[in-house]
Amino acid sequence: MNVKSKMLAGVLLSVAVVMPLVSACGSSSASDGAASASGAKVSSPAIQNNGTLTVCAAFSTGNPPTYYTDSTNNPVGAEVEMAKWIANDLGLQIKFQDVAFASIIPALQAGKCDTIMSSLYIKPEREKVVDMIPYLMSGSKVAVKKGNPKKVTGMDDSLCGLKVSAAVGKTATLQAEKQAKQCKADGKADLTVVQTDQTTAAVQQLVNGQVDAYVGETPVVLYYQSKQQGAFEPVGDEFGVIKVGAAVTKGNTELGDALKQSFEKMNKTGDYKKILDKWDMPSLAYDFK
């Protein structure tokens, strides 16, 4: 079955879009806690440029509260703060690269950054091409207008005959497309998946009544629910619970081990919990054993 998908804003997925964030690409300020290169714990070839940890994230798509840009184009969010903490711990300055989510692993492989911290789910197919260090948990939810007028019960056949919005390339989007095929196979009304290039746009379509539901990562749903109370609500069980990891190029054990140790240190100092609490994400904490 052909899933009906309306692509907004002319997004072109086949091209790797890599853009430096103007406010974040230079050397980090002292307030970011970046140390001098002389005290760095990792160096080339484990990182592209001595003294700097370059992090890829899909800021143009945005995934609040984990990563997005504020009104002045500064990177913010829980994962941004974790990346800055790690750079400081490793004695490095921080630099962010804005990369289209669908092209983010190729960008890493092409040397556009040293690591990916962009709510990247740890999946077997990804672990075949990159090494991943877990640091968060996540999952996906369905959100509907307040009061649930369409009586949606979650990611199931209650969505058949409806229109849902989702961001391009996300796991929840793929699940929605799978459910659309199931609706067709069961002889039920079509589920239309409307894809956008920005998470904010997908959520706004639900708020504006352009779609019946939104599907996306659990932290995104909870974040927007807190910001627009009374506009919409999550329904059904969380699905696709999975680990989130920082990706490094395959075989880059020096950087991978350094990131793992730094995450564990962040957890032991209590700063990991502080960051999650600040962004209302305590339920998504990874269990560092």
Automatic annotation (TrEMBL):
Give the UniProt keywords, A-Z: Signal
Q: What are the Solute-binding protein family 3/N-terminal domain coordinates in residue numbering?
A: 52-282
In the record, which residues are listed under signal peptide? 1-30
Pfam families, sorted: SBP_bac_3 (PF00497)
Checking Gene3D superfamilies in the record gives: Periplasmic binding protein-like II
Q: Which SUPFAM superfamilies match?
A: Periplasmic binding protein-like II
Q: Is the keyword Cell cycle in the record?
A: no
Mind telling me which InterPro entries this protein's record contains?
Solute-binding_3/MltF_N
What is this protein called in UniProt? Answer: Amino acid ABC transporter, substrate-binding protein
Tell me what organism the protein belongs to: Bifidobacterium ruminantium
